[in-house]
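Researcher: We're reviewing a set of sequences before deciding which ones to prioritize for further study. For each one, I'd like a predicted 3D structure that I can look through quickly. This is Peptidase S41. If possible, include the structure in token form so it fits the rest of the review sheet.
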Amino acid sequence: MKNYSVIFLLAVLSSCASIKRHNEQRASCIAPEQLKEDVDYAYLKLQQMHPQLYWYIPKQELDRKFDSLKLTINDSLTPLQFYFKIQPVIAGIREGHLSLRIPRRKFTKKEVKNLENTKGLFSRFEYYISGNKMFIIENRESVQNIKPGTEILSINSTPVSEYIRKYRNLISSDGYNTTFQPYFLKDLFFNFYTAENGLANKAVIETLYNGQKKTYTLRRESKSEIDLSKDKAMKKRTQEKKLNDYVASSNSYNRSFKFLDKDSSVAYIKVKSFSRDYSDEFYKKTFAKIKNANSAYLIIDVRNNYGGSLHEINNLYSYLSNQPFTLIKPSQVTSKGTPLRTNYFRKSTPLDFAFKSLAYPSYFFAQAFSTYRKDGKVFYKMKADKPTKPKKTAFQGKVFVLINGGSFSASSIITAKLKSDKRAILVGEETGGANDGTVAGFYSYQKLPNSKISFPIGLLLVQPNINFSDSQKGVVPDVTIVESMQDIIDKRDPQMDWIRSEIAKEKEKRGQ
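Model: Here's the predicted structure for Peptidase S41, in token form for your review sheet.
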């Protein structure tokens, strides 16, 4: 026990020292020549590991962008300042998964605990971005009675439009899609803002509502005992929470299922993230209920679903197909050694490191033999690129799928496949992820040598098993219906309404 106590103490001291070093390094200035070395390093690693680097941008143009970037670096910069220079170039590659990690301040356990006991300045609202404007569309705690539909004009006297123009250059969708950015930007806006401005205890916002300007001072309030009790209750993992993949931070479920009418003829599945956690059990139980109810219609909602597990979408598709299918094409990598670049020991505690060290030989051999060469290219062995049999309880009725610009990555893979196979009617707006696939799968977490900025690079070219559109855009719905900000505020759902209307018409024709 004495030895364990010493190890624990050393681990705590090491962690504190690491946080201090990180924050000091984040505040330090780095010489121009060193920053230029980081630019070259980032481009070299992309060329070595990214399997489709010039998909949306010619090599000559990308070369020019990196060369031009270096010409602009004439002064010493902090890592954060450097990030705002280099990330727009990375975003210009137009690969939505490809992004440097913003160099944020790290917090000690004590600081984290204090933050957990307070309410956020901005996280109590839901937002909507249109053009260069930001609106509050939900005020969950009625903070100062700010009305949904209120535009935020400025934060601490800086126009919000300036932030939006700046932050928009930091993110991209796959290809030339335009629907993704408003969804992703509203979710990341305050990540960028707090990285720049810190976690303040108050903020002054100027607003506009119904032609009237008002100024509010938002304050970081302490949570009440009731709030803390609710937080504690939300963290408890019941069987229902596990099955539906409960997310305590948002007090919501990643997966949910219900029948939309009394006769159970219309089933509805909402998936907010393909997280894989307990997904096999969820779909097994859900489709058994649908089959027992003899439902004629199924609506799958993947709006605002940024993607996730290939295993989960392959499994889900097996409940929708009536014949064997292959979800994706073979996944290309740049070399046979690529799978060994995945930072096996990343984010390991001392105990994790010990266990992983013992398992590393098995991991090494599994990864070393995970590739094969065909037609001069190297591919990674994946279960999803092999024929999959449909489940016995596979749904045989009519399928509708709800999509929007927030449907990204795995959401786009499965919807592109469903559309190509004519297995579903897609309703909504063009997906944020590309119709013809993306580069992700698993990552090599590089670190720029001088600025120490983390740079995860996707290693797999993942493409649905379809005839490619070569559109360089997202999955286009069969029926385009765009949801307005007022629809969201009024809790109207025109996309779902269209589907239910179509189902009602079909039922009426059949005399149901």
